[in-house]
Amino acid sequence: MLVKLVKGALGHTFARGGVHPPTEKKATQGSAIETLDPQGEVILALNQHIGSPALPVVAVGDRVFVGTTVARATGFISAPLHSSVSGTVTAIENRPSTHASGLAVPCIVIASDGQFTPDLGLKALGDCGKLGRDTLREAVRLAGLTGLGGASFPTAVKLSPPSNHPVETLVLNGVECEPFLTCDHRLMLEAPEAIIAGGRAMARAVGAANIVIAIEANKPDAIAAMKQAAAPYPEIGVEVLPVRYPQGSEKQLIQALFGLEVPSHGLPLDVGLVVQNVGTAWAVHHLLTTGEPLVSRVVTVTGPLVPRPKNLRVRLGTPLREILAACGVDEKVMNRATAILGGPMMGTILLNPDAPLVKGIGGILVMDGSVQERNPDPCIRCARCVTACPTGLLPNELGWFAKTDQFERSQEYDLFDCIECGCCAFVCPSRIPLVHYFRYAKSQIWFAEREKRKADEAKERSDAKKARIEREEEEKRRKREEVKAKMAAAKQEADATKVAQAAEETSGEQA
Prior knowledge:
Layout: H1 2-6, H2 26-29, E1 33-36, E2 41-45, E3 55-56, E4 63-64, E5 69-72, E6 81-82, E7 87-95, E8 105-112, H3 133-142, H4 155-158, E9 169-173, H5 183-190, H6 192-206, E10 210-216, H7 220-230, E11 236-241, H8 250-258, E12 273-277, H9 278-290, E13 296-302, E14 310-315, H10 320-326, H11 331-335, E15 337-341, E16 348-349, E17 363-368, H12 384-388, H13 395-403, H14 407-412, H15 423-427, H16 434-510
Parallel strand pairs: 1-14, 9-10, 9-12, 10-11, 13-17
Antiparallel strand pairs: 2-8, 3-5, 4-7, 5-6, 7-8, 13-14, 15-16, 15-17
Helix pairs in contact: 3-6, 5-7, 6-9, 13-16
């Protein structure tokens, strides 16, 4: 296996930067996954993935079941959406979202009947070894699977590499380096065989000969479980990495395992690799064995103000307020707390607990409200952020460019190579919220690009309309000229006829 050829080349971790925040995983690493079903309605946001949002295919009043397709994908980089409950569609409207802006987004609202009856169309696909690659990819696409590590990139897209990018190795990411989160840890402990089976199916889909499962050294029980489950398969190896943040990021993980650097603006495919989260592997296996699409995920609910920290398997669309309540977090706690979606390094603040669970949320942290009160001091040019940056950027410069709306300069300094890991903000003695600045700059650039595309498209439509009108006018003019010419010819012919007739009459009279 390729990983064994380079093991130790970089101290078996990524080359530069990184930090060692407290792991804070003890509260839930020993907590088995429990199931939490929604009490009333579920709210399914139409854009739970990177790419184009899904388009509803149901109407208010429709009866749906667990696994019923309620929205279809609208492009190659998109994913369909399925009902996580059985019940009735009650609304298709804007509802509060988990986005950092807190803006309401289009959602499908379903009133649950509490029965969780599966859709009759769900059928197990069976042994992946008997399925063709295209069949596997199509099944994953129709099931709405996305990466469950946080990015929510449509899984089927990753499993469809172009023919000029052969894949040698599939990496299953079980690093889970974000503090507090233990959902992947528990999955590896409780369902290692399912993860292996899902990984083998994905390796078959991309044509990878090898599978590498990456786990950090602070999960010895998960390492043992995965090694035991992988033992019958010589093409699968479990690699143990030293604890270092952000080792779970794709590019840093690839560098740690293989000593390879994914090019700027490049993808793991460029170096012959595909990386998938262990939770995604579990979801693929679940799809193959039950036919059920992605309708739930494991979420870690923890933090200093959570009375009963838990790992929960929750149906998508469940209001976050219900999830928090199941762990003992009531209104009194929320009034003095800050809830963070994801982990403390890369997560975003929850602005409205009525927002629903979406595919990319792997954790909810409830912290003391004072974590928001971070009044930054001026930058002292210490360059700690530069040292900590795992992608080799200059966060201090990028932060200044973003703060002063110098977006072109931000791009010149490779803003979009930033993985928003938060290492720079973590080490900053001035408490400058650098990642917030970077996200702001990216959003402004994306907005400007969208507006430019809209303007260009509008200009194209306007130019096309103008050209069409000109063509139509030219056609009308040509037809008028033709008619005019025909009329002139007819008149000339009529005049000639009259002259001829007059001549005949004159000659007749003379005779």
